[in-house]
Amino acid sequence: MTDSGPKFKIFKFLKIIIISLLVTALLLFTVASIRTLSLDVNVGLKLARWEKTSNVSLVIDDHQREQLLAHFKEAIRIPTVSFSGEESNTSALLEFDRFLRKAFPTVFSSSLVRHELVANYSHLFWVQGLQSDLVPYMLLAHIDVVPASESDGWEAPPFSAKEIDGFIYGRGTIDDKGSLMGILQALEYLLIKGFAPRRGFYIGLGHDEEVSGYKGAMNIVRVLKQRGVQLSFVLDEGLAVLDGVISGLEGPAALIGISEKGSATVKLSVFMVPGHSSMPPRETSIGILAAAVKRLEDNPMPRLFGHGPERGTFEHLAHKVRGTSYLSIIAITFDSILHLFCCYAVIYSLVLERKPDTNAFVRTTTAVTMFNSGVKVNIIPSLAEAYVNLRIHSAQSLREVLDLIRSTVGDQRVKLELVDGFDPLPVSSMDETSFGYQIIKKTVLDMFPTVTVAPGICIGNTDSRHFKDLTNDIYRFAPIWFKPGDAQRFHGINERISKKNYEELVVFYFSLIKNCDIQKLPKPHSSIHEL
Ligand SMILES: *[C@@H]1O[C@H](CO)[C@@H](O)[C@H](O)[C@H]1NC(C)=O
Ligand SMILES: *[C@@H]1O[C@H](CO)[C@@H](O)[C@H](O)[C@H]1NC(C)=O
Ligand SMILES: *[C@@H]1O[C@H](CO)[C@@H](O)[C@H](O)[C@H]1NC(C)=O
Ligand SMILES: [Zn+2]
């Protein structure tokens, strides 16, 4: 199944059409009778009676608005860049520390808050709860950003925080200073209003997330483990509110990340006797390595769509899909006859794998990122090396992926070495008894009633992966609005957030912290009947 010639493409396309027609025919018989399932995905606990926990509320006036935006812009202007695992702008990190103390004086002086530095530049806050029997939770965000250069084509200098048409431009506006500042600004407001939480919580701000969090997040975890801390849930950056991004989907969707793909970096090397280019051997280290790399590209990892939590995403979005696109045909099918899911997953995989961004949901992806050999035009080099970066699908393990690479390469002369890697993250809970998921969902729906909330998977990785021994439930989400084209701004040029959206982040964390004060979740069914 590796031929990608034009003949095969036509065949594949016909196959998709034929199978889709069969699916449609099948639907005509089944849809009418069973299209009643899961229409209440957004209702559930929303209609239930939630315990009222506090009378504190947030109305941002013009003066506060001006001030919170000024703080946010100041945060963007400090170039807290991580250049590599070893090199970060430490003077910017120190400046950021001073800035936080100045911007949020109540957070840093409240008797309810204990603040400490971890690994010199990361911050850990403990906000004490009145009821020590309530299991604490944790909010995460990171201080560092990836490099940015104005010459790449930014409309405004990347550390200027310049305002254009209601948007603040700058590196870090969405990744991840929006959340970081939103969390601390919300806490500042809560404390000023005299709020004292019933449920204690932690806030962790790592300083090296963009280079894996080995110093910041890992040391925060070490400190918490030493203290025997267990967390109800962790909320970190990751997914967002997608508006018009998923084709065929009616209305915006808030995707809450319930897992992350795993990752592996594998080094391939071939060592041969060096020689002069005037007497070349039949095969060189470069040729052998190139062939191995080509085999990896020609034989993608198996399709696993439907075997991981991505299934839940499509089930939850199914009833909002319109039109007659493949997505709608397949999605309506998910909605109605879930037990036949596997058949359709195969067809849908064929559609998804045609685009790089959706292919990432279908399988473990394989990307050759470095290829080095040779130093002189007339010398046959002895050594050729390549690096392959893989992002592991939730239904596969690091071990399985390495075994597959070995068999695909199938050449003893190519040495394989795992440079760095980890399994996909466990899947967090999302049912009606899942405290963190339901709190996040309620907070989103209170603010944005027309949004569909669904679980999702993060294709990239976050600091929260280091926290998996402290909790079973890690969520990756912030209510940042992504419209078509916005995803490219992430780690790209013209990263920006609207002023309104930043304010929404503050309100979101303010409400979330309040909502976490309930003792336990309401019971959905009995409450719905009362209405
Ligand atoms: C909210 O205010 C009402 C009326 O002043 C009071 O009875 C109630 O106890 C307050 N609730 C909380 C959670 O503080
Ligand atoms: C590091 O940050 C400081 C501000 O704290 C800034 O003046 C300096 O230009 C930055 N250095 C680099 C290499 O970006
Ligand atoms: C913190 O700073 C001290 C002194 O500069 C240094 O020795 C130490 O290695 C740093 N710790 C970390 C975790 O970076
Ligand atoms: Zn980030």
Short description:
With 531 residues, the chain is an alpha+beta fold. It has helices at 6-34, 62-77, 90-103, 105-109, 177-192, 216-226, 285-298, 310-317, 326-336, 341-352, 356-362, 398-409, 435-447, 499-515, 524-530; strands at 113-118, 122-127, 137-142, 163-164, 167-169, 201-206, 234-242, 253-260, 262-271, 275-276, 365-373, 379-380, 383-392, 414-422, 452-458, 474-482, 496-498. The strands form four sheets. Strands 1, 2, 3, 6, 7, 8, 15 and 16 form an eight-stranded mixed beta sheet that branches. A four-stranded antiparallel beta sheet has the order 11-13-9-14.
Give short descriptive properties of this protein.
531 residues; alpha+beta; Aminopeptidase; Alpha-Beta Plaits; 2 domains; eight-stranded mixed β-sheet; globular; binds 2-acetamido-2-deoxy-beta-D-glucopyranose; binds zinc ion
Describe the structure.
- Residues 258-411 form the Peptidase M20 dimerisation domain.
- Pfam families: M20_dimer, Peptidase_M20.
- Zn(2+) 1 binds at residues 175, 210, 491.
- It comes from Cyclopterus lumpus.
- The active site is at 144, 209 (proton acceptor).
- By secondary structure, this protein is of the alpha+beta class.
- It has two domains: 62-245 and 432-515, 3-Layer(aba) Sandwich (Aminopeptidase), CATH 3.40.630.10; 260-422, Alpha-Beta Plaits (2-Layer Sandwich), CATH 3.30.70.360.
- It contains 15 helices and 17 strands.
- The strands form four sheets. Strands 1, 2, 3, 6, 7, 8, 15 and 16 form an eight-stranded mixed beta sheet that branches.
- Helix 1 crosses helix 9 (326-336), helix 5 crosses helix 14 and helix 13 crosses helix 14.
- The longest helix is centred in the first third of the chain and has 29 residues, at 6-34.
- The protein is globular, with a radius of gyration of 25 Å.
- The chain binds 2-acetamido-2-deoxy-beta-D-glucopyranose (NAG) (3 copies) and zinc ion (ZN).
- Zinc ion (ZN) is lined by residues 142, 175-176, 209, 237.
